[in-house]
Amino acid sequence: MRTLIRSRTLLALAGLVLTPALGGSQEATRTHTVKTGDTLWDIAQLYLGDPFRWPEIYRLNTDKVKDPHWIYPDQVLLISGTPMSTPGTPADSVAPADTMPPADTAAQMQQPASFPPGAPRSMTIFNPARFEVVRAERQTLTLSKPGQAVRPGEYTRAPFLWDAAGLPNTGKVGSAVAVDAIGTGRIDRPIQMFERVYVDVPASASGAKDERFLSFRYGPTILGEGIVVVPTGVLKLTKDAIDGRAEAVLLAKFEAVYTGHGVMPLDTLVISAGAVASLVEFGLKTTLIWMYDDPVIPTIGQYVILSAGGPEGLVPGDQVTLQRDLGNDADGKPLPPDDVAVLRVTRVTNWGASAMMIGQTDGGVANGMVGRVTAKMP
After folding, report:
1. CA distance linking residue 186 with residue 192, whole number of Å
2. Where would a tag sit more exposed on the chain, N or C end, judged by fewer CB atoms within 10 A?
3. Taking Cα atoms as reference points, which of 222, 245, 220 lies closest to residue 230?
4. How far apart are CA 161 and CA 228, in angstroms?
5. Where would I find the beta strands (DSSP E) of 317-365?
6. Which of 103 and 371 is assigned the larger pLDDT?
7. DSSP-derived 3-state class of residue 56
8. Nearest-angstrom CA–CA distance, 299 and 295
9. Rounded distance, CA 266 to CA 157, Å?
């Protein structure tokens, strides 16, 4: 009996001795090095067993975590205990008390550093201050405005409407200059980029070396409107023409260029730099009469032709909004039309206007749809 009492007494004393040690181990400093994809929510779940306790970790690390939504790889976060010097990035390590700078120096260190123009900033990509610098730079960024309302390439490659009799005084793409044993000189193949070909020069052209021409093919004839002319490429003469015939190379290709395609002088569009269309109300009404390549669902960049042209006052750069008629409501009152797409006029003739789709709210663009001019060039 005495032996049992003595044993219990010894165990109780041992418990008193061990209890402070156990309590001290629970208060030992614990840290976590942040990995890609970590969040305070996940870290609280891992160490504290409850993700809703993430504010406890945040409060222990306000010196390095400025926003609880943003923590960065290689940051060493305190989970429990008191701050102490820990391995990690210099920005995340805590200096020992005997090496801490004076209060006035520490206050200066907390101020954002000023850098001379063009000087590199000494910070890692994981430093939160880096993102503040990026945001400041973006606030001062000025986006450049487009040089002109219609780009030269948009004008050159735009199909256009002409008189049903076709273009006058045109030339023709001839055969390839070089013919080899594998049949690259066959007539039924497309001309390759920078390939040398013969060209019958239009009578109205000088035929001088470096003169440029637009190759084209005829599209459908639209009853009561005219014939569609589809540009296919740009050719440049490499030699002066002799008796109306010269060598040329294909510089640009909008679609396959074949022997027999027409050739016309290359004209350019002149629009004042910085000139843009201004909104107007109750603008000219016109009709969509043709779409390039007959698409099932037209999208941004689609070329179309409108029935109105130069005589009606359209000019390159004007904007036309296509609208769908919604009919009448249940009471028989007309409903306002639904805007479907926005077109920018690219090329204008006496028979119609070419345009390119630059905005779209619906895929149901179709021939016969009514459009109204909603922005005019100055």
Report:
1. 12
2. N
3. 220
4. 5
5. 319-324, 338-348, 353-360
6. 371
7. helix
8. 9
9. 11
CA–CA separation, 145 vs 325, rounded Å?
35
Reduced to 3 states (helix: H, G, I; strand: E, B; else coil), residue 99 is: helix
* Two structure tokens written together for 134: 């990026």
* Cross-strand pairs, 231: 216
Q: Which two tokens stand for residue 160?
A: 């256009």
Please answer whether residues 341 and 196 qualify as being in contact, where contact means their C-beta atoms are separated by less than 8 angstroms: no
How much is the pTM? 0.59
User: Cα–Cα distance between 344 and 281 in angstroms, integer?
Assistant: 17
| Residue 335 CB partners (closer than 8 Å, separation 6+) | 326, 327, 328, 329
> Strand (E) positions, 254-318?
262-265, 278-279, 285-291, 303-306
Long-range contacts of 325-330 (CB under 8 A, 24+ apart): 325/370
Angstrom distance (rounded) from CA 319 to CA 276: 10
| CA separation for the pair 127, 69 (Å, rounded) | 15
**How far is it, in rounded angstroms, from Cα 176 to Cα 170?**
19
Task: Supply the mean pLDDT for the chain.
Answer: 79
Detail the DSSP E strand segments found in 67-206.
Answer: 76-80, 160-162, 171-176, 196-200
